[in-house]
């Protein structure tokens, strides 16, 4: 059975021709956009972003984690806590909701952009563009939503402060890393403000060009390590995943069971229930397929569904429902692995306007297309009316690893992390420039390092708070309030 879309396009209703849409407001002139940014600076000085003091009515961070657990797979939640327990940095990776609640109490310029919502340093990396070139970009958009652009910058900056502490860097090194990354954001935004709209849209950070610069700016050891990471990333495709995650059963490949991290549907729902669920999956995949670009829909039609398993992914995402689907093309050695990941409401929604898109998977996909320079060719979404637990849920889909690679923060030396922070800063500015008023944001930031220095101080202050919250998790587990599974 294939996953062809058997639906037809609805007929256009007869009657009067649709009226032309009303024209929107006239766009602001360049001078007006600059004035808007400078007015925001007068209202919210750049130096005000340096301050962070936990609010007197700050919500218990453990209570926020418990609230998130209510909508997650109960038996997987202890794995999430176990992964967050490894260090303050891994705790930070799972604490997007906690930080969003804190950021909602901090000063903002009033200027908005499409946010990643969880822009920490491990949510950047390399992956393949549709043209099969390695690009550097943001790679996680589960929390994406329009909001104050400063929130992304602050979450990114504080992640570098936390990573620097974990690596034992001196304060002066951490500050150089954070301030350098924010300066890269500011300078890139100024450059994007001067570009034509299409030039901003086409801008991207290609890895080959970055490696060429590294040869001139870094040590041979750092260059060798970087090239090894990139070489490994190029091996991470469907064939590599296929050899690692499957075995042959009755002449056909099946996903290997490795509970609780990987559990095939045959084990999650054995017997008739599992067979019925697999049949429903064809309808789900048809719905997902209908959201893809036309040529990708045709490409996906050449594959047939073979097996599906639940897979534990990430740190902050653990407990949300994520599945991997094995599809085969012309023969058993022609695999495609898709990942269908549950999309819940963004952690930002209670602090900014709710998404104007009903399907949370579509929200993620729209945000990813808007912020990324090149997105996975199989990026799409679907709605599941009756899943394993009988509940309605939204999902988004993409390939499971396609030339994807990332640099482990604990393996970086200060100079390497400084260069990485600058790459992240440039990339985040490009993402915001595509959706926000880049001219106004650039005018707000200005030419001095006032904002850079302010965020440097904020990052250290928030890293202190993150360590206190991490300790609260440690105490909650010691007391038995939370249960954690470590080493998984």
Total separate domains: 2
* Major sheet: 6 strands, antiparallel
Mean pLDDT: 89
Q: Number of DSSP strands?
A: 13
- Measured by DSSP, the beta-strand proportion falls in 5-15%
Distance between the termini: 36 Å
Proportion in helices: 40-55%
Q: Give the helix tally.
A: 18
Shape: globular
Structural class: alpha+beta
> Rg to the nearest angstrom?
23 Å
Describe what this molecule looks like in 3D.
The two termini are 36 Å apart. The chain is globular, with a radius of gyration of 23 Å. The chain contains 18 helices and 13 strands. By secondary structure, the chain is an alpha+beta fold. The model is unreliable at 4-18 (pLDDT under 50). Strand 10 (322-328) and strand 11 (335-342) form a beta hairpin. The chain folds into two domains: 30-234 and 409-479, no CATH class; 238-399, no CATH class. The longest helix is centred in the last third of the chain and has 30 residues, at 450-479. It has a six-stranded antiparallel beta sheet, with helices on both faces. It has helices at residues 30-43, 61-69, 77-84, 88-93, 96-103, 149-166, 171-193, 197-202, 207-217, 220-235, 238-245, 265-268, 272-289, 294-301, 360-371, 414-433, 438-445, 450-479; strands at 112-115, 124-128, 134-138, 145-148, 205-206, 246-249, 252-255, 262-264, 304-311, 322-328, 335-342, 380-384, 393-399. Helix content is 47%, strand content 14%.
């Amino acid at each position: 059975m294939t996953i062809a879309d058997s639906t037809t396009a609805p007929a256009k209703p007869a009657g009067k021709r649709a009226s032309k849409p009303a024209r929107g407001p006239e766009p602001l002139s360049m001078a007006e956009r600059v004035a808007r940014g400078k007015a925001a600076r007068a209202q919210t000085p750049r130096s005000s972003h340096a301050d962070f003091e936990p609010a007197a009515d700050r919500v218990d961070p453990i209570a926020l984690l418990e609230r998130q657990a209510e909508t997650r797979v109960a038996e997987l939640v202890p794995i999430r806590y176990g992964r967050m327990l490894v260090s303050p940095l891994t705790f930070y990776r799972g604490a997007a909701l906690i930080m969003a609640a804190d950021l909602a109490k901090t000063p903002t310029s009033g200027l908005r952009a499409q946010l990643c919502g969880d822009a920490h340093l491990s949510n950047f990396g390399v992956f393949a563009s549709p043209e099969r070139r390695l690009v550097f970009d943001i790679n996680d958009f589960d929390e994406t939503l329009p909001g104050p652009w400063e929130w992304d910058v602050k979450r990114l900056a504080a992640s570098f402060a936390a990573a620097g502490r974990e690596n034992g860097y001196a304060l002066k090194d951490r500050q150089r890393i954070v301030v350098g990354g924010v300066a890269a954001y500011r300078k890139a935004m100024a450059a994007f403000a001067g570009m034509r709209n299409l030039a901003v849209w086409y801008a991207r950070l290609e890895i080959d060009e970055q490696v060429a610069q590294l040869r001139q700016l870094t040590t041979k050891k750092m260059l060798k390590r970087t090239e090894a990471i990139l070489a490994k990333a190029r091996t991470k495709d469907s064939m590599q995943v296929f050899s690692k995650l499957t075995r042959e059963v009755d002449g056909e490949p099946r996903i290997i069971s490795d509970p609780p991290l990987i559990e095939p549907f045959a084990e999650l729902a054995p017997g008739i229930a599992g067979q019925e669920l697999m049949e429903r999956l064809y309808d789900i995949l048809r719905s997902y397929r209908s959201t893809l670009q036309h040529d990708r829909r045709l490409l996906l039609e050449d594959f047939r569904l073979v097996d599906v398993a639940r897979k534990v992914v990430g740190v902050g995402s653990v407990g949300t429902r994520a599945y991997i689907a094995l599809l085969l093309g012309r023969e058993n050695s022609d695999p495609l692995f898709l990942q269908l990941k549950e999309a819940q409401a963004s952690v930002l929604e209670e602090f900014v306007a709710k998404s104007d898109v009903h399907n949370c998977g579509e929200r993620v996909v729209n945000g990813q297309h808007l912020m990324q320079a090149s997105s996975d060719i199989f990026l799409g979404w679907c709605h599941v009316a009756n899943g394993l637990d009988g509940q309605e849920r939204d999902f988004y889909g993409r390939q499971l690893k396609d030339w994807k690679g990332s640099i482990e923060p604990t393996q970086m030396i200060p100079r390497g992390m400084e260069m990485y922070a600058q790459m992240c800063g440039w990339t985040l500015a490009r993402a915001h420039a595509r959706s926000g008023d880049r001219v106004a944001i650039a005018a707000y930031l200005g030419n001095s390092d006032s904002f850079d220095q302010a965020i440097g101080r904020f990052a250290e202050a928030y890293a202190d708070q993150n360590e206190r919250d991490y300790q609260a998790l440690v105490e909650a587990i010691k007391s038995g309030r939370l249960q954690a599974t470590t080493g998984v």
